[in-house]
Design a protein that fits this description.
129 residues, mainly alpha, 6 helices, 84% helix, globular
Amino acid sequence: MPALSSIPPLALVAFGGAFGACMRYLVGRWTMMTLGIGLPYGTWTVNIVGGLAMGLLAGWLTRIDSGSETLRLLLGVGVLGGFTTFSAFSLDIVTMINRNEIGLAAAYAVSSVAGSVLALMAGVWLARA
């Protein structure tokens, strides 16, 4: 990975993140046009696809010898982070489960979802106050 490894890490993340965010937008638009607005199909799609992609990437990166950190930054942190942070969240939980930290994984999952929903509600309330 000589060409990519010379790029500063922040630039890798920024480039990948921009690409991932654009893909998330396009998936959202496509699902809205094809499936309607009844449910958040776009969000659901990127969360599921992003989780699968993060799993494939994590598994592949453990098998390659060189360039894995560069690819992790570009594809994992950048592209998939811009596409959906749910993929990184899912990887965190699976990592805890693999370390047999089941209680911690459950607490992290519940507190992350509940905490982010409550924080969003607080932000809306504060912005409207």
